[in-house]
Amino acid sequence: MKLAAIDIGSNAARLQISRVLENDGVISFKKVEYVRFPLRLGMDVFNSGSISPEGEVRLFKMLHSFRLLIELHECKDYMICATSAMREATNSTDIATRIEGQLDMKIHIIEGAKEAELINNVVVQSLEPDRNYLHIDVGGGSTELNLYVRRQKVASRSFKIGSVRLLEGREQKGDWVKMQRWIQEYVNPGDTSIQAVGTGGNISKLLNIAETKVGPDAISIDELARIQQYVSTFSLEDRINKLQLNADRADVIVPAAGIYLSAMRWAGATEIHVPHLGLKDGIIQLVYEKWLNRKRRKEDGIS
């Protein structure tokens, strides 16, 4: 059985199709299709407050193509979640209604807390039980922070600080202060066991660029700072041609690195673990849980 997730972010949109695997009663998900499209809704929303007519057309065309892939894979179910840009766009509800009428595809515009919850549901599985973690999820329009103690989430908050928002100069200075104060309130600066966990496309790319790593999926704060400085010395054109970054990654990767670094420094974390998981994986898990509940209700004769 295959399931699909569509994540409409502020910088890019992603389609992931996964096959559900069962081994001795243990369920896992194997990615069989992944498509990323640089939709960049945040460019519209963070500057004008709404999605432009051109942006709506791109969104429609992209979802139409995603629907065809979902149909070709014969997925049992799927879910679409939209985050920061569509949360803030004044016309997002109207656009979502039109698209649902035209494509029969429902867009769920989720709040930051729900976004963090879906990501946390899959990230927590990668955490060691005897360590404390600050989970930093950096998107185009927002950053979600979550504090874990022995795999239990004890605090969580969403901030309007994101890579596209910083690129457009649309962040508020007070938001940085709020983030710093939140971290300093919940993270003990003397906690030497604290480790950062990073999710989002930019931290995965920064890990790939790293020359030295702390294990296969982690880098030190010093290496992350070195990478940020190294990439910043290249022009946008050279980041695309010499570093082979996608155009929509090349301009946001430096401000994104700055968000991870700031959060790590305030928390006193010396390294960051990158589990290569994100919102799309959390959506897949939610779609499976809903499918399973429907199946059980049907078996029990409950309509």
From TrEMBL:
<protein>
    <submittedName>
        <fullName>Exopolyphosphatase / guanosine-5'-triphosphate,3'-diphosphate pyrophosphatase</fullName>
    </submittedName>
</protein>
<dbReference type="GO" id="GO:0016462">
    <property type="term" value="F:pyrophosphatase activity"/>
</dbReference>
<feature type="domain" description="Ppx/GppA phosphatase N-terminal">
    <location>
        <begin position="29"/>
        <end position="284"/>
    </location>
</feature>
<dbReference type="InterPro" id="IPR043129">
    <property type="entry name" value="ATPase_NBD"/>
</dbReference>
<dbReference type="Pfam" id="PF02541">
    <property type="entry name" value="Ppx-GppA"/>
</dbReference>
<dbReference type="InterPro" id="IPR003695">
    <property type="entry name" value="Ppx_GppA_N"/>
</dbReference>
<dbReference type="InterPro" id="IPR050273">
    <property type="entry name" value="GppA/Ppx_hydrolase"/>
</dbReference>
